[in-house]
Amino acid sequence: MSWLPRTVNTYLMFVLSLWTVPIILGGCGQNPPTPPSQSNDSRLPTTQNGAFPMATSVATNPALPMYSYEVVHTFPHDPKAFTQGLVFLDGELLESTGMNGQSSLRRVELDSGRVLQQVSLPFEYFAEGIAVLGRKIFQLTWQNGKCFVYDLASFNRKTEFAYAGEGWGLTTDGQWLILSDGTDRLRFIDPDTPEVTRAVNVTAAGRPLNHMNQLEFIKGEIFANIWQSDFVARIDPATGKVLGVINFTGLLAPADRDVYTDVLNGIAYDGATDRIFVTGKRWPKLFEVRLRPK
Fold first, then answer.
1. Spatial distance between the Cα atoms of 36 and 51, rounded to a whole number of angstroms
2. Is the domain 5-33+45-293 a CATH 2.40.128.630 member?
């Protein structure tokens, strides 16, 4: 039995190597590494030094107007919520959270961050963006090609419809659903049929802009989080041209971050009082912000 210690040692070294490799690779990025058991949102590669090329090219383009922000008010936010969609409605927030086994649709009290109502999705679904039209909530899934439709009051699932490709962000201009899928294309979908009525290709200073994540329609423009960055693009829905870029760098202080904190993602608009709310995936805070030309 003299072979046993050697075999055990070899096995232990192999197990340890499985843990150390992702830790080393995860340290290359700008964000703290997320434990492997907690995240599977690995959609697209970054560059070798951890920078995200699309966000960098947009943020440094002198042809695009840049905006900064000021914080008007800070609200609590569930740090376990992997925010994928956010809507402000009647004084409350509707929120879609992602991750397999953690995806949900929630109604959240703004002032306290308390979850007032929630429905969880089966494990196989990774929830994404949401939009509200009439008395219905529409919720995308990432790779299942399904949009779930809920009753606004009860959260009972009424129906569902299929779409091609991935689902990332969702918003509405009051008539159509507007869907992003990780490419440079935005689709305008009839919520009743549901057919694609038209599509636009988004460009930033003449270059295609992809990786558009959560969306929000604000005063005639589409605001789009650029995935894996602190930047939000302001897009003309008629032409797809980027009208400007908002730099939210520094919004969440380092003291409020931990190993589970992920990227900026989540914009909601209160049209009645002209307020913009911003948060991120597993952020402990949600911010009311005011935009400023930079």
1. 20
2. yes
